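We treat protein structure as text, and this decision shapes the records that our systems exchange. Such a record has a labelled line for the sequence and another for the backbone structure tokens. The record that follows is passed on verbatim for readers who wish to inspect the format:
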Amino acid sequence: MSVMLIGEGLVIESKADGSLDLDNVAHIDLTIGPKDGPVGVSFANALANQSAGHTNLLAVVSPNIVCKPATVMVTKVTLKGSKQVMQMFGPAQAAVARAVVDSVIDGTIPKAKAEEWVIVCGVFIAPSANDNKKIYKNNYEATKLAIKNAVKGTPTIDEIIAQKDTKHPFE
């Protein structure tokens, strides 16, 4: 039986004036599952199928140290310039990789699955992003949340139904 775990995490900090810091928002969508299942196929396709402005990359803790479960980061917006590319390949990549490893360390992802599973992780970096420390912090927290939600199967359908009328921050 194939397994595909699905998770989402959104982290938006507030500015000093109480407004939302939409420049440095982090939004992660991810799937987790075995290499020989649908997530594994998506993982391989993401690495094999690149396009201008959408450079998919492996999440690495540091050069030559890929995280486990191996994670491919998929850009959710067209990267338009070296600043945005460096934000994806720098603080966002480090944040995602470390969140994956920390999720193994804290037991959210079973250590026994670290070699068997892969992750496809959609990462949003706003074109207006302007603070690498916030990019790191928010993407780390959003990735941890998305992994937790995926592995625990949350929110449940009952939780979704109960909260269906809540306001979305981008409405």
Q: What stands out?
A: Helices lie at 38-48, 82-105, 132-152, 157-162. The two ends are 39 Å apart (CA to CA). The chain has four helices and seven strands. The longest helix spans residues 82-105.
